[in-house]
């Protein structure tokens, strides 16, 4: 419904939006900056709905024709601007989707809001074209720029926008959302919360990702091979993880949380503190065959690997070295 209560967390951004409306100090340009899945699109649409509502109050009424059209996804005064090129938003996108129809008055609301998706993909030429519009916009025109990397913008663009940082959501809120909205059992909620990194969108994506579960199986399999101590099998199992190199951060987190759970099992023996609660018996069995020293060495090697990966080190080769170096501890 695109209402304030639909937003999980982000109290600072919501407070800014509410105060801007309450004090009638709404800017003509906002930059919502946050990673993919962080909630920046929802926040921008909630704000747009409030501003387009015919009642002109702090909350959308959900009863006027404007709110009804907005909820249906076809409000004429909300213009979605997207790149026609997969890699960048060019000057032609800005010219055709913004400037050529900017002179048209709002159809039914007091504002006409342009929502620029992936605005940080704009070329320098496109930014300069948009800059002219931001410098002298019509009174009714507003611009919401959605971006993952605000550093990609020209300083002149940034200086004309109110920057709203969309930060990670506290884990407790993510966990509650997964349990109550996604209806996941406790052990899955704990796992998804740990890997969401405070990102509701990521939690939703992982909750139905077969690739995520398969990657975890591969990590568990490599740990089993490591315990058996066959170097050839370690090399082969490490090679199986190469298919996940596009999301190596998740692979690294899987190893890190698995090793952390092994330490918890050995030290406490209670599944309540585990990230991978559903694999308690596997962790118990592996923990019996791994010393604190070997687990510690793997964690040390993992930390080194995470530093090396920034320099495009081969993931398979790095994993091989990570495990082979810890075999004789």
TrEMBL record:
The keyword Transferase applies. InterPro entries: DNA_pol3_clamp-load_cplx_C, DNA_pol_HolB, DNA_pol_III_delta_C, DNA_Rep/Repair_Clamp_Loader, P-loop_NTPase. Keywords: DNA replication, DNA-directed DNA polymerase, Nucleotidyltransferase, Transferase. Pfam families: DNA_pol3_delta2 (PF13177), DNApol3-delta_C (PF09115). One of its GO terms (cellular component) is DNA polymerase III complex. It is an enzyme of class 2 (transferase). GO terms for molecular function: 3'-5' exonuclease activity; DNA binding; DNA-directed DNA polymerase activity. It comes from the Bacteria. This is DNA polymerase III subunit delta'. It comes from Anaerotalea alkaliphila. The gene is holB.
